[in-house]
């Protein structure tokens, strides 16, 4: 599995060219993209500026020597490379098991090309069948949101850290992992969830990905929208 993540991550790094403004996703697959981009910056003098989607990605990017910039200063990005937890046949996604969905969605919304990197186990026919849907919520009154989210047809579970305290995102919020059996109408659900007062954003990334790099036992292939 680790090998497949590495193949997908490194293949996506090859799509980056000189002068690009690059959104840098979060997660164990993107980690390999960051390492590869860092090597290209050091060895080839690749001239890029990255926008990180998490504190973790910012730290790694600085360690490997990727120059970083600010989304507000840079404007529209050329390419963003990010992982996902599920990908359906329309290239719609569930993201956020890594806890960075809000910044990832902001960066994805301001990029020309969103390239998703996954191993083949994350390809599904219907969203929600493999992964829970992460929903980031404000801390204030978050317990009141449990029933509002459950009313949408899921079993919401407050994400916990290893020490038994609720997980806190880079934005200071909590996350509910909402287990649906399946999500047949993701566009409707996205609006319904975001209409719940106290919800910051949910992990449905719809009509955003332009390419998905899939690493499987038989090789790496690319799906385009
Ligand atoms: C973080 C994410 C990640 O991209 C997603 O969870 C996939 O991570 P990994 O590559 O570690 O499986 O959405 O918020």
What this model shows, in words?
This protein is α/β, with parallel strands linked by helices. It has two domains: 135 residues, Rossmann fold; 70 residues, ACT domain (Alpha-Beta Plaits, 2-Layer Sandwich). 30% of the residues lie in helices and 27% in strands. Strands 2-1-3-6-12-13 form a six-stranded mixed beta sheet, sandwiched between helices. Strands 8-9-7-10 form a four-stranded antiparallel beta sheet. The protein is globular, with a radius of gyration of 17 Å. The two termini are 25 Å apart. It binds ribulose-5-phosphate.
Termini Cα gap: 25 Å
Q: Structural class from helices and strands?
A: alpha/beta
Roughly what percent helix?
25-40%
> What characteristic shape results from the CA principal axes?
globular
How many runs of DSSP E, i.e. beta strands?
A: 13
- Give the helix tally: 7
Count of spatially separate domains: 2
SSE succession: HEHEHHEEEHEEHEEHEEEE
CATH topology of the largest domain: Rossmann fold
Runs in which pLDDT lies below 50 for 5 or more consecutive residues are none
Instruction: Report the top-level CATH class of the largest domain.
Output: Alpha Beta
Strand content range: 25-35%
Cα-based radius of gyration, to the nearest Å: 17 Å
**Physical arrangement of strands within the biggest beta sheet:** 2-1-3-6-12-13
Q: Which ligands accompany this protein?
A: ribulose-5-phosphate
């Amino acid at each position: 599995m680790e090998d497949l993540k590495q193949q997908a991550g490194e293949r996506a790094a090859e799509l980056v060219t000189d002068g690009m403004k690059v959104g840098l996703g979060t997660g164990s697959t993107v980690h390999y993209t960051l390492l590869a981009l860092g090597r290209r910056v050091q060895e080839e003098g690749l001239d890029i500026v990255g926008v990180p989607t998490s504190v973790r990605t910012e730290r790694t990017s600085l360690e490997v020597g990727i120059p970083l910039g600010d989304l507000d200063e840079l404007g529209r990005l050329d390419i963003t490379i990010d992982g996902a937890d599920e990908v359906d046949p329309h290239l719609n996604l569930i993201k956020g098991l890594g806890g960075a969905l809000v910044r990832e969605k902001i960066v994805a919304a301001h990029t020309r090309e969103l390239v998703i990197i996954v191993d083949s186990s994350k390809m599904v026919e219907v969203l929600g069948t493999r992964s829970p849907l992460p929903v980031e919520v404000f801390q204030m009154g978050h317990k009141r949101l449990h029933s509002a989210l459950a009313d949408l047809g899921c079993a919401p579970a407050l994400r916990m850290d290893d020490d038994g305290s609720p997980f806190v995102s880079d934005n200071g919020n909590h996350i509910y992992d909402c287990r649906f059996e399946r999500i047949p109408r993701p566009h409707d659900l996205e609006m319904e969830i975001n209409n719940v007062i106290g919800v910051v954003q949910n992990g449905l990334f719809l009509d955003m990905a332009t390419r998905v790099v899939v690493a499987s036992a038989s090789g790496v292939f690319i799906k385009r929208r």
